[in-house]
Amino acid sequence: MNLQLGRDNKVLNIATIQIRPNRTQPRRNFDEEQLRSLSRSIVENGILQPLVVRRINNTEFELIAGERRLRAAVMAGLSKVPCVVHKCNDKDSALLALIENLQRTDLNMFEEARGIARLIRKYGLTQEQAAIKLGKKQSTIANKLRLLRLGFEEQEWILTANLSERHARTLLRINDENLRREVLSRIIADGLGVGEAEALVTEVLTKKNEPAAEKKQEHKIAIKDVRIFVNTINKAVDTMRLSGINAISRRSETDDYIEYTVKIPKAAV
């Protein structure tokens, strides 16, 4: 399925007030300066590529592709825009809107992830099916969806700082949200590149795990020292026995204690 239309599709001039935005449009942010620039171009040259719509009823249409052109046309004062009417259902309309944006790279990383998630959720697709529809690898779809684990505020910080998707994926290594925000703030403040951000995350995670590792090591050392003491007791009992003293030792052990009882005959004292 694609936006390649047949020869019989005619271009119609449709009133802008008759065109509804696509409810499943994945893109939510539109650069005002770019819209103004496109609007000036439309005033000068007209709309060179028709919008794609589908008919909802006798008087209304839903936009499938070309929301930037529609917004810029309204900004330019146009009351009608050239459109091609495409026959498709709700699912196809949502998918075509997403594909059109992806092919034009109009979406930021989080809009793209939300669009894919909405498509999967609404139409019951698997990640593999979504990957086939969008012409991507399943692993790529999985990585895109993982980005949504970042909070909305974190997403805004990343976009405002113009960080890359690799920066975002690196931050996902940190599960603690508060710690992740601290690291993100440092990445932005210090203007760290991807490699530097990866190194910082590794350093932070290593330090976070150090106390547990040290405690474990201390525990091992303590166990080793106790064994030395136990061996000392055993050797002492053995020495008494070799000297003719009938010493008796008993050992019992629980989760918390090792208990030794040593009985030495009074006659030997």
Protein architecture, described:
By secondary structure, the chain is α/β, with parallel strands linked by helices. It has a domain at about 1-105: Conserved hypothetical protein from pyrococcus furiosus pfu- 392566-001, ParB domain (Alpha-Beta Complex). About 55% of the residues lie in helices and about 15% in strands. The protein contains 10 helices and 7 strands. It has helices spanning about 30-45, 65-75, 90-105, 110-125, 125-135, 140-145, 150-160, 165-170, 175-190, 195-240; strands at about 10-15, 20, 50-55, 60-65, 80-85, 250-255, 260-265. A 5-stranded mixed β-sheet has the order 1-5-3-4-2. A two-stranded antiparallel sheet has the order 6-7. Strand 6 and strand 7 (about 260-265) form a beta hairpin. The termini are far apart.
Give a short synopsis of this structure:
This protein has a domain at 1-107: Conserved hypothetical protein from pyrococcus furiosus pfu- 392566-001, ParB domain, CATH 3.90.1530.30.
Features:
alpha/beta, elongated, five-stranded mixed β-sheet, 269 residues
Strand fraction band? 5-15%
Strand order of the largest sheet: 1-5-3-4-2
Could you say what the CATH architecture of one domain is?
Alpha-Beta Complex
SSE run = EEHEEHEHHHHHHHHEE
- CATH level 1 class label of one domain: Alpha Beta
Mean pLDDT: 81
The CATH topology of one domain corresponds to Conserved hypothetical protein from pyrococcus furiosus pfu- 392566-001, ParB domain
Oligomer: single chain
End-to-end Cα distance, whole Å, is: 99 Å
What structural class do you assign from the helix and strand content? Answer: alpha/beta
| Rg (C-alpha, Å) | 35 Å
- Proportion of residues in helical segments: 55-70%
* Major sheet attributes: 5 strands, mixed
